[in-house]
Q: What sequence folds into this?
């Protein structure tokens, strides 16, 4: 299993839009991916700037590539999402080591 950790900063006046976009658009897309085993969305509460993390669990790297395309090692950003973000998102991939 692969754990994909996607982190981003959101513009302060765009938090509600980001959450609406995530819930109405991105979560259904993730649920529709055959290789996506689960997802979690979190907000860093003690930060001065709105910061979010989206953690997704994937069957394997091929499943991630089916979702992201060939640039799976970079953050996938939807054109609707881009104006909500403050800077470039970061993405990391981890191989699950404990069952």
A:
């Amino acid at each position: 299993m692969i754990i994909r950790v996607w982190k981003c900063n959101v513009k302060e006046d765009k938090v509600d839009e980001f959450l609406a976009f995530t819930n109405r658009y991105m979560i259904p897309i993730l649920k529709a991916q055959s290789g996506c085993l689960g997802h979690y969305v979190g907000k860093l509460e003690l930060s001065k700037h709105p910061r979010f993390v989206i953690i997704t669990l994937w069957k394997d790297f091929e499943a991630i590539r089916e979702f992201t395309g060939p640039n799976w090692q970079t953050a996938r950003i939807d054109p609707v999402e881009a104006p909500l973000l403050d800077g470039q998102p970061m993405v990391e991939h981890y191989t699950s080591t404990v069952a």
